[in-house]
Amino acid sequence: MSDQCLATISQVQALYNDACVTKYAEMMDADVGAHSEDLRLFLDGLLPGIIADGSCGTGHLLEVLAGPDSTSRELLGLDLSPSMVAFATSKVPGASMCHCDMRDAGFLAEGAAAGIVNCFAIHHVTYEDAKKTFAAGHQALKRPRETVFAEFDMNMSFRIYEKQ
């Protein structure tokens, strides 16, 4: 894997601007709902606590993770794009939102999170930054720590590779 970013931070921020948000949200509306059950598997057996989305975009995964009773979990959405954070804030008003870079390890204290998802942005960073992002996320997880490796492919199929 190359250590080259697919785009610079400023390019990513420019790509996910106000003009893009509505189209991105429409795409997610059409696709994410089909995977609600897969995302619910992620919740099975998690300890009580924060669930963070390291690349929340328009908030679609947070909305699914909140479920019908959005008061049952504390949700935290992080995104590099201020436009995405603004949209996600209106979509999931019960979640806390943070305009920040997922590579900044300080967004959660050690052991503060019950679970962390990061589905749609890790491809924007270098291999080394991806390793740092996953390591920081792992440190933020409560014990016993549970790591889930999963991906959405280009057809939006969701696969869990490892849950231990």
TrEMBL record:
Gene3D superfamilies in the record: Vaccinia Virus protein VP39
Domain Methyltransferase: 52-142
Annotated SUPFAM superfamilies: S-adenosyl-L-methionine-dependent methyltransferases
Pfam families referenced in this protein's UniProt entry, alphabetically: Methyltransf_25 (PF13649)
Name listed for the protein in its UniProt record: Methyltransferase domain-containing protein
